[in-house]
Design goal:
By secondary structure, this protein is an alpha/beta fold. It is 35% helix and 14% strand. The protein has one domain: 3-Layer(aba) Sandwich (Oxidized Rhodanese, domain 1), CATH 3.40.250.10. A five-stranded parallel beta sheet has the order 1-5-4-2-3. α1 (9-19) packs across α5. The relative contact order is 0.22.
């Protein structure tokens, strides 16, 4: 017997986009180096290695987000303790919409069109910084 899915991805994304602020791409292009904003790249390391990332963005694989945000987690990253606005992005603005809705981090938004939209708009790109040490 096939599995029954009670909420498909279209429904999940519609719900997330109704609740989470979407950062318009044109505005994102002006904010990526604003010290009051932290762009968070949720893509897998292989995606970043293949295509680059937004300069100055913090790389946080989607699978680690909850652990890195929560200050009670042994994996907490101080970047998420800052009093700044977080702009999540992924390849196509799907994972970022769901992630921004799920965590309850505030203030948070997700980038319209994701990294693919950023590239199409001619936004600046950089390679992922090497790990120190």
């Amino acid at each position: 017997m096939p599995q029954t899915i009670t909420k498909g991805v279209k429904t999940l994304l519609a719900e997330a986009n109704a609740q989470v602020e979407t950062l318009p791409l044109a505005r994102g292009l002006t904010l990526h180096d604003d010290p009051g904003h932290v762009f968070v790249d949720l893509r897998d390391i292989r995606e970043i290695q293949r295509g680059g990332m937004i300069p100055g963005a913090f790389s946080c694989p989607r699978g680690m987000l909850e652990f890195w945000i929560d200050p009670d987690s042994p994996y907490h990253k101080e970047v998420f303790a800052q009093d700044k606005t977080f702009a999540f992005y992924c390849a196509s603005a799907w994972r970022s919409a769901l992630a921004a809705q799920e965590m309850g981090l505030a203030p948070v938004m997700h980038l319209e069109g994701g990294f693919n939209g950023w590239v199409k708009a001619g936004g600046p790109m950089a390679e992922r910084p090497a790990k120190p040490g």
